[in-house]
Amino acid sequence: MQSELTEEHRRIRDTLATFAEREIRPFAAQWEKDEAFPRAVMEKLGALGFLGVSFPERFGGAGADTLSQVLVVEGLARCDASVALSCAAHVSLSAGHIGAFASEQQQQRYLPAMLAGKKLGAWCLTEPGSGSDASAMRTRATLSGGDYLINGSKMFITNGNIADVYVVTAVENPEQGKGGISAFIVERGTKGLSNGRKIEKLGLRASDTGEVIFDNVTVPAANRIGPSGEGYRQTLKVLEAGRVGVAGFSLGIARAGFETAVAYARERKQFGRPIAEFQAIQWMIADMATRIDAAWLLILRAARLKDAGKPYGREAAIAKLFASETAMWATERAVQIHGGYGYISEFHVERYMRDAKLCEIGEGTSEMQRMIIAKSLLRDGYLPA
Ligand SMILES: Cc1cc2nc3c(=O)[nH]c(=O)nc-3n(C[C@H](O)[C@H](O)[C@H](O)COP(=O)(O)OP(=O)(O)OC[C@H]3O[C@@H](n4cnc5c(N)ncnc54)[C@H](O)[C@@H]3O)c2cc1C
After folding, report:
1. 133 C-alpha to center of ligand 1: Å?
2. Mutational test site, ligand 1, from 86, 365, 369, 372, max ligand atoms within 8 Å of CB
3. Which of ligand 1's atoms lies nearest the C-alpha of 371?
4. Which of 121, 98, 7, 71 lies closest to 255 in space, CA to CA?
5. N or C: which terminus of the chain has fewer CB atoms within 10 Å of its end residue's CB?
């Protein structure tokens, strides 16, 4: 890993690690217990420039590459996956959608505050009845005079209860299928926007997840992102880029499990020796390291293809699939290495395992990744990038 990183990458990774070890890791367990998202941390991350790493400098970003952004989300997930998830939804989905497809005027209006951590973003695609098949969404946007009227509801939205800026997809022209979906920016405080019941989760409990309800929400036509009917195409592109980030997020959780397990195996003695001396434990550690390494290389490949402007959809799906299944597998092994102590919250690895499950579900389930990969292989053949 070391040799793949430039000086700038290392600087970002190390500064982030210093910050996260001091300001995030010590509080992660309590935030999860309280189910409280640490909003102040987001502002600090913004002030330190970590939210805008890969955005243009004119919006307050650093203009760095995709790998730099991956290092940020990975480093955060290593210390607290809840903070990392909220950050990823804010940066790569909400601000990412605006950064890729909104007008200069819209970008000037929203991005500087979002990248500074002063305004929090949410990205609203999933609905109670549509997840993997996002095109089956039912939220409607009806043009009336110079305004759009938005009606419907969105489900499982990260930062959904606390965001300031919502990027929302809705059906504008139902007869045009996927080509009838448009994307809009809706600000918190807009009349008719509200939240549903509290959602209790398996893991990632300090990350806010909400239902967002749109009841005759009126936004000016100028709040549409890009041309009418482009919303679904934009969504696929945002998800494609987001998958590289989710792979980094998964890798961070896997590494947290790995590092904790190795430290524990060195300390814990049974039969008069540290358990790290038993071959059964050594093999688990070796397998964890091998999968983590492989996930890293897959992420590196996808990030490089993206930055080179080459097609990277298949490689992003492969990286996301492998990294997310590695996160789940490695954290389960980490619990196993801890024995009974792995099953209690004091040793954190049970939290890592609960957090890891989301990696196989969010931003396209593992089944969806396999579909994307197989479709691409069967269409284009296997051409190693
Ligand atoms: C904590 C959390 C945060 C989230 N944050 C956001 C967010 O910020 N914004 C947002 O828009 N969404 C968000 N989501 C939603 C997430 O992206 C969806 O849950 C995910 O896409 C899966 O959709 P679904 O839950 O409707 O499952 P479904 O699509 O109903 O899938 C159920 C099962 O069926 C399988 N399946 C479905 N179709 C097929 C098929 N054709 N072939 C084989 N298997 C299939 C799936 O793989 C899965 O195993 C979040 C979810 C969670 C849990």
Report:
1. 9
2. 365
3. 42
4. 71
5. N
Of 32, 240, 360, 363, catalytic: 363
User: Does residue 363 have an active-site annotation?
Assistant: yes
d(CA 303, CA 316): 8
Ligand 1 is surrounded, with C-beta below 6 A, by 89, 123-126, 131-132, 156-158, 201, 204, 209, 358, 361-365, 367-368
- This prediction has a pTM of 0.97
How many helices (DSSP H) and strands (DSSP E) are in the chain? 12, 10
Residue ranges of domains in the chain, CATH in brackets: 2-119 (1.10.540.10), 122-229 (2.40.110.10), 232-380 (1.20.140.10)
Instruction: State the DSSP H helix or E strand holding residue 156, giving kind and residue range, or none if neither.
Output: strand 147-158
List, in sequence order, every residue forming a beta bridge with 121; answer none if it has no partner: 165
Q: Determine the longest span between alpha carbons in the chain, in angstroms.
A: 79
Contacts of 137 (CB under 8 A, 6+ apart): 125, 127, 130, 152, 169, 170, 171, 181
HSE-up of residue 85 (Cα within 13 Å, Cβ side):
26
